[in-house]
């Protein structure tokens, strides 16, 4: 889903539930007024519904907004509750974990390999 995006792009989660009847304009207002961030920045802004089975991702690119929508048929996202203040910042690797049903706070994962030689 996010393979075409810059891997260094920041991801911001809006903790707690969001009314996902909101579309681009409503989510952009939440980014600006609640998260106090710029919706036109090259970041991904992620929102989840109360049941934690639906997500929307807002993303600005060049001259317009993208909105990505995901609905789980079974299971729930491990979404942070509203006790967190402000947005939760993460990378796309952690977002991938979240989309796969894992916690974004993995205790152990394979480390990134930086070697560029082949024997």
Using brief descriptors, characterize the structure shown.
single chain, 119 residues, alpha+beta, 2 helices
Which helices and strands appear, and what pairs or packs with what?
Blueprint: E1 11-13, H1 24-34, E2 44-48, E3 54-61, E4 64-71, E5 88-90, H2 92-99
Parallel strand pairs: 1-2
Antiparallel strand pairs: 1-5, 2-3, 3-4
Q: How do the SSEs run, as a string of H and E?
A: EHEEEEH
- Strand order within the widest sheet? 4-3-2-1-5
Shape: globular
Strand content: 15-25%
Q: Please report the distance between the alpha carbons of the first and last residues.
A: 33 Å
How many helical elements?
Answer: 2
Largest sheet: 5 strands, mixed
Structural class: alpha+beta
Total discrete domains: 1
Percentage of residues in helical conformation: 10-25%
What's the average pLDDT? Answer: 87
Total E-strand runs: 5
Rg is: 15 Å
Low confidence ranges:
1-5
């Amino acid at each position: 889903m996010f393979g075409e995006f810059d891997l260094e792009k920041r991801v911001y989660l809006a903790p707690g539930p969001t009314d996902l009847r909101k579309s681009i304009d409503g989510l952009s207002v939440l980014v600006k007024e609640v998260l106090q961030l710029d919706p036109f920045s090259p970041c991904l802004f992620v929102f989840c519904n109360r049941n934690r089975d639906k997500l929307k991702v807002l993303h600005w690119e060049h001259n317009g907004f993208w909105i990505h929508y995901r609905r789980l048929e079974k299971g729930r996202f491990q979404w942070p509750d509203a006790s967190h203040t402000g947005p939760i910042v993460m990378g796309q690797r952690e977002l991938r974990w979240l989309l796969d049903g894992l916690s974004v706070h993995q205790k152990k994962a394979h480390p990134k390999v930086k070697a560029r030689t082949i024997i």
